[in-house]
Write a structure and sequence with these properties.
361 residues; alpha/beta; five-stranded mixed β-sheet; two-stranded antiparallel sheet; 58% helix
Length: 361
């Protein structure tokens, strides 16, 4: 073989080696980029939570990296194949609110999503168009009817304050009242820490009037009340009621009998702020309830938080449930109708009628 031929063969071999090397480098970079993408997703989910909160998530929700990644993938695969829903968000924050609420049971999380969408479809006048800049809604929030305090309680939970006397039941109706609640819940459900740690509720009944109760249509209230607990992916860890008039205590007992035993055991009624402070750290309460920050300042901070989440919340209206055929019904779903016992709605109507005759203390 000529020297020229040998030299050409060696060059060709070198080129081939270079091509193989370049190919291996590209493959390595591709695999590395995929790995980094996965790592980024995990880091984003875990970076939003402190180490102590991650421990709570593991202990109470069975959440860890492996479980979270597998369940997110399963949930998204189910959504991709589900013809009953449309335009559903698939980002981690949204999907995790359902998975965490149901302790990463994918079938139960799927059912909760369908029920959540069904509530929005059934009560669109209360659950959609939650625009914080809407004049009526903004006024209700600004008056301090419902807001989340800026400081979390000793368990790391956001605290929702409800003030009956701050809601003008003669100016605003039940639809306005319900929208204020749903706006609050939607905003808080976006927070990863709240998804894990849950919520603490404080209801101040001081100043409640007959108009607050009779503002509601009995049938609509009955349906919304019955569906609410099972449809919103929230962890209601504590419910504290204060300044409850004697004329309302029997209604509280009635409500306690209509919720799950878990919720019933978490509901407490107090006769004074001092009793409340034994259960809830005053540091997370407004000045009016024994804390340090005036309610007006807390409300302004909450309004800024709502304004930041406005676009995200309004975009939820793009999601649709086309049919409720995928929602599993309990075998006793219609038992109330066939029973000789008074129905939930009829009992609500009875309560409403009774309140029309009451004078509040």
């Amino acid at each position: 073989m000529r020297d020229e031929d040998v030299e050409e063969a060696l060059k060709s071999q070198d080129n081939n080696n270079d091509n193989i090397s370049n190919l291996l480098i590209h493959i390595y970079k591709f695999i590395s980029s995929i790995s980094k993408m996965k790592q980024t997703t995990v880091d984003q989910n875990e970076a939003a939570l402190t180490e102590s909160i991650l421990k709570v998530a593991k202990r109470e929700l069975r959440e860890d990296k492996c479980t979270r990644d597998q369940c997110l993938e399963q949930f998204r695969n189910w959504l991709a194949k589900n013809e009953d829903v449309q335009n559903i968000r698939t980002d981690d924050h949204f999907v995790l609110r359902f998975l965490r609420a149901k302790k990463f049971s994918v079938p139960m999380a799927e059912q909760t999503l369908l029920k959540y969408l069904n509530v929005r479809r059934t009560f669109p006048h209360m659950t959609t168009g939650l625009d914080f800049f809407d004049e009526r809604l903004n006024d209700i929030i600004s008056n301090g009817y419902i807001y989340a305090t800026p400081k979390r309680d000793k368990n790391g939970r956001r605290v929702i304050i409800n003030n009956a006397h701050c809601f003008n039941a003669k100016k605003y109706n039940a639809m306005d009242q319900a929208k204020a609640h749903f706006l609050t819940y939607e905003c808080l459900m976006e927070d990863p820490q709240t998804q894990v740690m849950g919520l603490t509720h404080i209801g101040d009944f001081a100043g409640i009037t007959t108009a607050h109760v009779t503002n509601w249509n009995p049938t609509e209230f009955g349906r919304l009340f019955k569906w609410g607990e099972q449809s919103l992916p929230l962890r209601h860890k504590e419910i504290h009621l204060i300044n409850v008039p004697s004329t309302l205590k029997w209604v509280v007992d009635f409500v306690k009998n209509r919720v799950s035993s878990k919720m019933r055991n978490r509901l407490n009624v107090y006769t004074s702020d001092k009793d409340l402070h034994k259960a809830v750290d005053p540091e997370c309460l407004p000045l009016e309830l024994g804390g340090k920050i005036p309610q007006k300042e807390m409300v302004e901070m909450w309004k800024r938080e709502l304004a930041e989440k406005r676009d995200i919340i309004l975009q939820l209206d793009e999601m649709k449930l086309l049919t409720d055929r995928g929602i599993l019904r309990k075998s006793s779903h219609n038992s109330e109708k066939s029973s000789n016992q008074p129905t939930f709605v009829s009992q609500i109507e009875s309560i409403q009628g009774s309140f029309r005759k009451l004078e509040f203390d």
